[in-house]
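From: lab user (bench 3)
To: helpdesk
Subject: output format question, protein + fructose -6-phosphate

Hello, I'm new to running complex predictions and I'm not sure whether the block I got back is the full result or only part of it. Here's what I submitted:
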Amino acid sequence: FNNLKEGSLFIANEIAAVIRQKQAEGKKCVLGLATGSSPKTVYAELVRLHKTEGLSFSNVVTFNLDEYYPIDQDALQSYNRYMREHLFNHVDIKPENIHIPNGELPKEEIKKHCADYEAMIEEAGGIDVQILGIGNNGHIGFNEPGSSRFSKTRMITLDNSTRIANSFEFPNISEVPRLAVTMGIDTILKARKIYLMAWGPMKAPVVQKAVEELVTEQIPASLLQQHNDTVYVLDEMAASELT
Ligand code: F6R
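Helpdesk reply: Thanks, we reran it on our side. This is the complete output you should expect:
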């Protein structure tokens, strides 16, 4: 796409079409959602479609990819708060249909929380549409380089490069959490349709590696080559190193 806006509208329209199709069939629509800077315009467009074009989220069930650990749900940097501010507070989604990894639980409860998260995705019928951003190091969700193709929802240690990339959201680098809870690569690859979005020149080198080089757990996004319905949605700059 020429720019972030056009790419974002494309993704929002694809999501809206699936929501409407499922509604017509009397079924739930299960969305896997990302945070960060990349999907903000997608969410803004979904909110616009709800407010001005009657798109209802009453049949939508969501599962977010990840959350920092530990973090208060109301902290400025919490992905739970991000989702409320960018999407959930502005549409008619049922609160009980929203799922986000909980960064407030005591550590000893996280293992069960992750297993429950996986079970809830399965009970919901699996993810229909998953949206992803990509880290400069190739991470998807918070599956950092070295994450197994078979990984499930779990607690992980954030790479230093990720902590630095995300440090602008925090007062200083030492306050960026060292841990996070993330869906696994296997969780993501089970989604029926995946859109990975990347905007701007900073993402060009990792997009090139993930799309055109060999599949390797060192570039987690390259594992999407093994998925049969993944679309990379790029602006000119993010696509500029593709051959
Ligand atoms: C966020 C997530 C991350 C981001 C990635 C890119 O939920 O899962 O993988 O998508 O770090 O972040 P931005 O979009 O801020 O460049």
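A quick orientation on your result: Residues 34-38, 65-66, 133-135, 139-142 surround fructose -6-phosphate (CB under 6 Å). Let us know if anything else is unclear.
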